[in-house]
Amino acid sequence: MSPTVLIWAPIGLLFLSAIIGIVIERHRKDACLKSFNGDFVFIKMKDGQFIWGSLRVFPTCLELTYDSPQSMGIGRSKASYVFYDKKIAEIERIYRPAPKVESEARAAWEEEIEDLRRRGLFERLRRSIRNLYGMLKDAFSQSVGLVVGVVKQRSDTMKQVGGADKHATELGQSLLKVLPHAYEPVFECYRGSLVVLESVSKGELHETVGVLDDYTVSNILIRAVEVAEPALPPALVERAFDLCDVIFPRSVAIVRHRIAETQV
């Protein structure tokens, strides 16, 4: 191998890894939140306030576009609301209303939930592979750093690049963050089942019944939840929502029980 290749190949590898890492960070989204992307939602904050509109999910923030712009009193209106990290931490739950009863969209929504409850062989296999990948994430990320470390020892040029193997290990960890890897055996057993989720609101414990769909490090998604919010704003009450899919932050909620099928 020519000296030129030995000099520039390792540097090119580090440069490419840095670009890949940046791209991954710019496109990584929470899997539960991503499932609500583009849909109409209403968000309940921890202080009891409700905000609603079309949700757009970004890697570092959420954008809610109002369906009715809010007047600022000076001939202008606020068209959207952006949630950054601090404000996202104040979210108590996010509701996505089910489609209207007897509509084609409602039939498709109900079929989707039935498919979730049945969970065929292909879906179980896909989740098993994902979970295995998640359990091996640390070994994978360390192996990337080890490979670069070996190259560094054999290349005089790479020896001059401080922290090359550490940077490569960080890249391996970033690659694995693309896939959700908050594997929990109990949650996997409960997926597709009717469960009772406990959540805390203003110091009080509440129970919510729904079908467990998915979970991430930050959130839990349950489906087909009956709307039971006595303090809904009139604009939302008028829409007569009956069922919703709901995302709960894991900081305020946990799956506590599975409901026996004979009791459904």
Describe this protein with a few key phrases.
264 residues, ten-stranded antiparallel β-sheet, 10 strands
Describe the protein's architecture and organization.
- The chain has 264 residues and is α+β, with helices and mostly antiparallel strands.
- The protein is 41% helix and 30% strand.
- The protein is built from ten helices and ten strands.
- It has a ten-stranded antiparallel sheet.
- A hairpin with a 3-residue loop joins strand 7 (204-215) and strand 8.
- Helix 6 (137-154) runs antiparallel to helix 8 (164-176).
- It is globular.
- The relative contact order is 0.15.
Short description:
The chain has 264 residues and is α+β, with helices and mostly antiparallel strands.
Helix content: 40-55%
Count of helices?
A: 10
Unreliable segments of 5+ consecutive residues: none
Strands of the widest sheet, in order across it, are: 4-3-2-1-5-9-8-7-6-10
Shape: globular
Spatial gap, N to C terminus: 69 Å
Count of DSSP strands: 10
Q: Hey, roughly how much beta strand do the residues contain?
A: 25-35%
Largest sheet: 10 strands, antiparallel
Radius of gyration: 23 Å
Along the chain, the helix and strand elements come as HHEEEEHEHHHHHHEEEHEE
Give me the secondary-structure category.
Answer: alpha+beta
Described by its quaternary structure, the protein is: single chain
Rounded mean pLDDT is: 79
